[in-house]
Amino acid sequence: MFSGVVYGLLAGFLGAVASTSAKLSLGADYLKGVCETGLKTWAGENRMFQQENETAPCDWLHIPLRLLCGGLLFTCNAVMWTFFAKALRLSSSSAQATVTTTASNFISSAFLGRLIFGETHAALWWVGISLTLSGLLILHGSTNRESQPAVATKNE
């Protein structure tokens, strides 16, 4: 089935989705702005539906969208903790599961932030994530060698 690494990667991704959902549900009018932009674009394509106040539905529509994002936050957190627990159980060490989940979360957060919010990261952030990934590779390599049985020598 799945290994601990796959569960760790999924847990990190779900953690990033949960934090993105939190930012959307609690953020300062981001969903309202997206709604207004979408309605203006849609109304621009459909000239017969233009009204004086094209964005009036956005005054109330962002509230259910925020509630939906809040529900997604709690759902993703619950599934993330389940996958993290499975990663801990199936990994050769708790450090391996933790570093895998953390690296996956950082990378997923960077891509989701860029995709949804248009965020960019400084070079120092990329240096930090590169060091984290290097540590992950070293950790994965060292745990494979440690899991091999040691050859016992007999001193007489």
What does this structure look like?
There is one protein chain. With 156 residues, the chain is mostly helical. It has one domain. The protein has five helices and no strands. Helix 3 (58-90) runs antiparallel to helix 4 (94-117) and helix 4 (94-117) runs antiparallel to helix 5 (123-146). The chain is elongated and about 85 Å long. Residues 1-22 form the signal peptide. This is Transmembrane protein 42. The chain crosses the membrane at residues 63-85, 123-139.
Q: Main beta sheet, described?
A: none
Q: Could you name the ranges where pLDDT drops below 50 across 5 or more consecutive residues?
A: none
Average pLDDT, all residues:
81
The rough form would be described as elongated
The proportion of residues in beta strands is under 5%
- Write the element-wise H/E pattern from the N-terminal end onward: HHHHH
Number of strands: 0
- Tally the helices: 5
InterPro entries: EmrE-like (IPR037185), TMEM42 (IPR039632)
Keywords: Membrane, Signal, Transmembrane, Transmembrane helix
Protein name: Transmembrane protein 42
